[in-house]
Amino acid sequence: QVQLLESGGGLVQPGGSLKLSCTASGSTFTDYTMGWFRQAPGKEREFVAAIRSGDNKVMYAESVKGRFTISRDIGKMSGHLQMNSLTPDDTAVYYCAARGANLNYGSFTRSNVYPYWGQGTQVTVSS
Known about the structure:
Layout: E1 2-7, E2 10-12, E3 18-26, E4 33-39, E5 46-52, E6 58-60, E7 68-72, E8 78-83, E9 92-99, E10 116-117, E11 121-125
Parallel strand pairs: 2-11
Antiparallel strand pairs: 1-3, 3-8, 4-5, 4-9, 5-6, 7-8, 9-10, 9-11
């Protein structure tokens, strides 16, 4: 089993930045795809970004493109989501998700392809 732990959430003013981290423990994988999803109050969970370890291919939701950057740590199953120019619309619980394989690029956005999920970390953007 793989356990994922997110960290780095908090309260930030509009225009500010936060960096989320996701660390895996347990039976980790050398090859993996890591995704970030978020869920705002009263809304469905939505895709934010994903990266696969084999070639560092990344994908972003249109709403965060140019503001968020996903990355991973070489040699271990962990990654980060750097979030800049945050707006109140970014307020949500952010979840890290992972699969122990290099997913097809077209599958990155699908939450049901990730078997492992963290508990989530709250990000609140407010003045």
